[in-house]
Amino acid sequence: xxxxxxxxxxxxxxxxxxxxxxxxxxxxxxxxxxxxxxxxxxxxxxxxxxxxxxxxxxxxxxxxxxxxxxxxxxxxxxxxxxxxxxxxxxxxxxxxxxxxxxxxxxxxxxxxxxxxxxxxxxxxxxxxxxxxxxxxxxxxxxxxxxxxxxxxxxxxxxxxxxxxxxxxxxxxxxxxxxxxxxxxxxxxxxxxxxxxxxxxxxxxxxxxxxxxxxxxxxxxxxxxxxxxxxxxxxxxxxxxxxxxxxxxxxxxxxxxxxxxxxxxxxxxxxxxxxxxxxxxxxxxxxxxxxxxxxxxxxxxxxxxxxxxxxxxxxxxxxxxxxxxxxxxxxxxxxxxxxxxxxxxxxxxxxxxxxxxxxxxxxxxxxxxxxxxxxxxxxxxxxxxxxxxxxxxxxxxxxxxxxxxxxxxxxxxxxxxxxxxxxxxx
Length: 425
Prior knowledge:
By secondary structure, this protein is an alpha/beta fold. The protein has helices at residues 18-26, 38-45, 56-61, 97-107, 126-139, 177-187, 201-232, 236-243, 265-275, 282-291, 293-307, 336-345, 359-366, 389-400, and strands spanning 9-12, 31-34, 65-68, 79-82, 115-118, 148-151, 170-172, 195-197, 316-320, 349-353, 379-384, 403-411, 423-424. The chain has a six-stranded parallel sheet with strand order 3-2-1-4-5-6, sandwiched between helices. Strands 10-9-11-12-13 form a five-stranded parallel sheet, sandwiched between helices.
């Protein structure tokens, strides 16, 4: 069994999850940060992180961290941590391709005594059913005899500068009791908040996937309440503020549910449930409701425009924000795109502005050409879709100035008061 003094870590995938982890470990032990994109490696070697999760100073502090896109440079590593994305496909099914490819790569350099830990969100059983067979087949090594596996789900919250990798309690697990102890010891090198050692890999996998499923279902409930209250002419935020005076009322808010976690993870659980013969009712109902909120928002906007006698077809609408959450450049699975596409179905001319998002990435992923500085007085409607600090700082007068004399202002994020906006969720 490995000893902490022998530890040489490889982090596979240097995105929102992998890079902060690599930096923290790199302050203490030898770490190779591996990514298949040479552009990402070059960027990090130059001391920059386009995800904005790690500052240039923090990159410098990780004095034991090196970067590479060359698999050969992982041969001396003995503790591999996989942090690649686990998205869904167009049919809402888990896409384990990145996970399988990462396992294939590791298997080429895997040696006796090595440990592989997965952090990517999966359904319960995926590590043992999908990943381990790949490692065994390509490496020609035997699981739990020649090499070992653990699972420690990521809990990174993109854009959150308060909850960082070191101060978020970490779940750990291993394929044997001894490995579980060792994996736990490794993470305790950097996790100041401590760890929770799960009794099995499947328990750790299940714990991760239900964290975001729970949030998804709760947001779906609030979204449904918002639809009901809107029909009744009641301000949803006012209702939630009143209900929130009770000590045990949960502070969820309505909105679009996107990103790489909440809008994705439930489909991993429902996929597994259906494969064992159970059709999940509540989880899928919540997903359907949340996935339909973009269309609902546009329907409400169009009704608001009609009431103000604004010609819908050919109208010009500005969407403020494209990333899936505030103060973050991440556009993975952003549901703002649902609003844009639905507006275009009405033959509306749509401009999108987001100071946090890389324009090249927005065009590559969604075919959207971002507007740097929206012109004043030209929009029939403005949708405040993401609560970026820049938009909050504008205030209602500056936002209103973007619209024509007669326009609709839709505030999705409760940045403005009820009296300042025309529509709110």
